[in-house]
Here is the input.
Amino acid sequence: MLAFLLRRLLSLIPSILILLLFVVVLLRLLPGDVVDVMLKDFRASDLDRQVLEERLGIGDPIAVEYVDYVRGAATGDLGRSFWTQEPVLTVIFDHVSVTMELMLLALVFGTLTGIPLGVLSAVKQDTIADYALRSVSVLALSVPNFLLATAIVTLPAAYFGWSPPLFYTRFSDDPWAHFQHFLIPAAMLAPFLSASLMRMTRSMMLEVLNEDYVRTARAKGLPERLVVYRHSVKNALIPVVTLLGLHVAVLLSGAVVVEIIFGLPGLGKLLIDSLVQRDYPVIQGIAVVTGIFVMLTNLIVDASYRFLDPRIRLG
Amino acid sequence: MSEVTSEVAASGTALGLAVPKRRFRLASVLWKFARRKPLGAFSGLLLVLLVAGAVLSDVLPLAAWDVVDQSQRLQSPSFSHPLGTDQFGRDILSRVLRGARISLQVGLGGTVLGVSIATSLGVISGYRGGIVDNVIQRCVDVVQAIPPVILLIGIIAILGPSVLNVTLALAFRTSFESSRVARGAVVAIKDSPFVEAARVLGAGSGRIIFSHLLPNIFAPMIIIFTLNVGVNILSEAALSFLGYGVPPPEPSWGGMLSGQNRLYMISAPWLLIGPGVALTLTVYAVNMFGDALRDVLDPRMRGV
Here is the structure.
């Protein structure tokens, strides 16, 4: 186990380097750069462009920029934003807490409802309860979140004169207002998570409930509750946990739409803003931070296989 | 199931009836499926209708999907426009059907491609273990760690916005992400007694993979497939929302649900209801059909 952890932690370094290479190249291939965006409302000469490029320290070949960036990153310096000249780490730090909070709330809601409901749905296979749960979950999977978010923002405002809070309040200023602001966006992200976990749990439980050892457990007279919770659930969870891990990765930077509509200054919004402004240092910084987080999540998921099924050997 | 059908076919021939063998078999399999899983069969029918609607949208006697007519703008549903018209006076029903082409191509096509690659990657990675596993999984780490927005927008910006490129970009993302589920499922069963038994009996890797591992990871993969159909149709929508979807005027359900159209949520809700219902129905049908398929194909439940 220790060797496994060490090996995986060490492999983070090459992985992050390759990730950065991808991101750096991908960004440079996008049409238009930061100078174009900055100068788009001015009639700028080539000389102006050169001066600006020089001041921002860009225009070097990709390889040079990449090496410089990695060298900086190795000493903990992720550069400064092209636009605000703030250190990238500070900018990301300001936004990451919002995303983490949103993600944790969604994960807690989603997991606590998804897995038990999935078990229920499997145990009651092909009953009304099963059909109802599956139908509701499919609804949750098919409503686009930008549509739902727009509906939540506009409909109550039109009919009841109430709208969810849209201006971000810092926790230190007003904890209750801060929490309220997160509640609806989190409750919007959660159903998708919950529904997909529920469907995976149901399907895996159905597989497991037909296994011989479950039949044995029943045959020796164990109460159904014990058969389900002691003997079955843990064995059904490997794909569920894997799926949960995928959701963590997606939520980390993928809650863009919800963050934009609800005015939450999280990583997703920062990412889109930086992308529009071609603020490469910030985007690369986000990629490093989310990358490390995603890889650690995968590490935890892989290690959990062994906990769920002791027969599994960690590679 | 096949024994039963051949039995039926055999008794048919015994009675002296001319039984066209293949056809009879397919029909009876479908009939059996429909009896055992009515909801699944209904969903399958729905999918067939959707695909037919998408393919035939040019032939069906409908208003043109791309004719702008300001005198007809924002009409509520009526006999001549069953789902109403949009802010440019275009018929929504024909746009929904036309949009089905893109949404189904992106949703079904992208997912079939993505999940097939995902399964192959995951099975190889999980089965081989060791260095192969490590290399593949670290690649997966990298692709998964690129924020999806950057990955998708990056690919589309480089390849150019078109239906095919959006499909490919989504398939690429799906394939790396979902391979983890396939790998996890393989890792969970590859040391099981039945796999070892097969190996002891002299089965090679190919045989073990195709007749022992793949059937047993079918359940999680079908869930991953059905989830991703919805996710990919919606991702195309989210890309449209951010301005990188399939370029207008070509309609997609996602595009019809995003952008300017959201502003009419209160004054002309039918703009959203048509594509919204189509999207929901598709995702519903794919999921329910997938569930039914899993139940029928579950090796442990065969014949139950």
In short: Chain A has a mean pLDDT of 83. Chain A touches chain B through 71 residues (CB under 8 Å). Residues 96 and 267 of chain A are 6 Å apart (CA to CA). The longest helix of chain A spans residues 88-123.
